[in-house]
Amino acid sequence: MNIRSFPVIMISMACWAMSAVGVQAQNSIQIFGPVDPRLSEAAASYSNPSTFNTNNLNLVCPANPVGVLSSTPSSTPLGSNGNVLVDNNLTVMVSNRASGGTVDNGPLDVCPASGVAGPSAALTNCFRSAGYQVPVVAGYLTGQDPDTFVLPSNEGGDGMTVDQAGGVTPINISKQLVSGPETVTISLIDDGVFLASSSLYLNTNWENQGGRLRLLRSGNNLEDFAAEVPPMGGALLAFLRSDKSWHGHHPYEGKRRAIQLNWVTDQSVADREQARHGLSSKIKRLFQPALSWRR
Question: What is the value of pTM for the model shown?
Answer without folding.
Answer: 0.65
